[in-house]
Amino acid sequence: MRWVSTSDKGAVTAETMLAFPALVALFASALGLVSLGLKQIRLEFDTFQFARGHAYGLSVDPGDEYVVEQWASGALSCVQLSRPGPIVLRSDYCVLKAGS
Question: Domains of the chain: which residue ranges?
Fold first, then answer.
């Protein structure tokens, strides 16, 4: 049997109380980074779709979610989409113009 002094009682509880907010913050940060990564993947996919439609001469509306910049570079049709917010996400994609 282990003898526990009265001064050690509650030490584990106190240490847990100090560590718990840090663990919650770490878990919330990890979830936030996963969410941000998924938004970037979606932005990359939408940029490709928008660039492909633009190269075919289609009128594609990205909505209010993105800011669009388009330019041509030789036989390439380039598009840059950016998603405004606290952390700005940006993606650009270039495809060959249709008929080139």
Answer: 11-96
